[in-house]
Amino acid sequence: MTDLIVTLDGPAGTGKSTVSRKVASRLGVPRLDTGAFYRAAGLAAIRAGVDLADHEAVANVVAGISLDQDEGRMLLDGLDVSEEIRGPESTEASSRVSTHPEVRGLLVVYQRDWVARHDNRAVVEGRDIGSVVLDARPEIRAQRRADQTGKEHAGVLDELRARDERDSTRRASPLIIPEGAEVIDTSDMTVDEVVDRIVELAREAAV
Prior knowledge:
Layout: E1 4-9, H1 16-27, E2 31-33, H2 34-48, H3 55-63, E3 67-70, E4 73-76, E5 79-80, H4 88-97, H5 101-117, E6 121-125, E7 132-135, H6 138-149, H7 153-169, E8 182-185, H8 191-206
Helix pairs in contact: 1-8, 2-3, 2-4, 2-5, 3-5, 6-7
């Protein structure tokens, strides 16, 4: 069986989650949400009561837990935490723990193992991994996120800009466009148009 790994990258509000689900369905392969690993790691650190700024303490927590995804469910030590990791506390924690190189290294091992266990055929959604990078104008991204969360557009725009700044300047895997990546500006595209383009690229690469 031929390897088929599509990695979807890009900042928040570009449509990665929606697009990755549809691309995985079209290609008939499983989907891995790498962001859920960081959220689960953040949750584990919160539960352990460690200082999220202490990279050694957070890394020790992450090294002592088990993380996996099963049919879209995020499992922390075998228990489904899919709903809990979507809360604001875990969301904030995930952004903070993701700045630690030691934590990123540990989670990359989990993620690569997951892809290998699925015969190296998967759509992988996340940050700083992308062969396909989705982008959109900041105002469009903020509006999409505001529609999802019910928050005010202006506040969401400020949050996205702060997160972009944090992600692009961190020491470990800063958010940049990898050399050779296919950049798709989704600002004026429908979801189906974006999915069609990615599926086309994936099938061309598989030939």
